[in-house]
Amino acid sequence: MPVNANSLTIGGLAKATNVHIETIRYYQRRGLLREPQRPPGGVRRYGSADIARLTFVKTAQQLGFSLDDISDLLRLEDGTHCQEASALAEHKLRDVREKIDRLEKIEKVLGEMVKRCHAHQGDISCPLIASLHEGITGTMTRVP
């Protein structure tokens, strides 16, 4: 449904963007979204520019950017600061790759623990529980 200029209430904006009203208010307090003037005796109204701004914020969040990062990106959104925006994205990409590396290490350690549990026989203590009590040692690398 096309949105006419400044035709939505905050509830309509929330519905149009699938964002809670309190989230919109929080973004306004953080300076990520404008808070329109309230006309005398009236209700604040939002339009397509506000939908686009919220879409930008939510998409950036889905890519792992923090609200501080998003604030920086919004300051660069005029299109003339591509180098700076690229630097922020490169930093985020490094962070993501480091997280993937840590998760792969965790996967390896947990996989080994599960194998030890499946190979476990008898009434002695559970190898997984014992490993957690002892800390990660031996052939398993320490996971941060």
TrEMBL record:
GO terms for biological process, alphabetical: response to mercury ion
PANTHER family xref list: MERR-FAMILY TRANSCRIPTIONAL REGULATOR, REDOX-CYCLING DRUG-SENSING TRANSCRIPTIONAL ACTIVATOR SOXR
Record PROSITE patterns: HTH_MERR_1 (PS00552), HTH_MERR_2 (PS50937)
NCBIfam families linked to this entry: MerR (TIGR02051)
Entry function: Mediates the mercuric-dependent induction of mercury resistance operon. In the absence of mercury MerR represses transcription by binding tightly to the mer operator region; when mercury is present the dimeric complex binds a single ion and becomes a potent transcriptional activator, while remaining bound to the mer site.
Lineage: Bacteria, Pseudomonadati, Pseudomonadota, Gammaproteobacteria, Pseudomonadales
Protein name as catalogued: Mercuric resistance operon regulatory protein
GO molecular function, one term: mercury ion binding
Organism whose genome encodes this protein: Marinobacter daqiaonensis
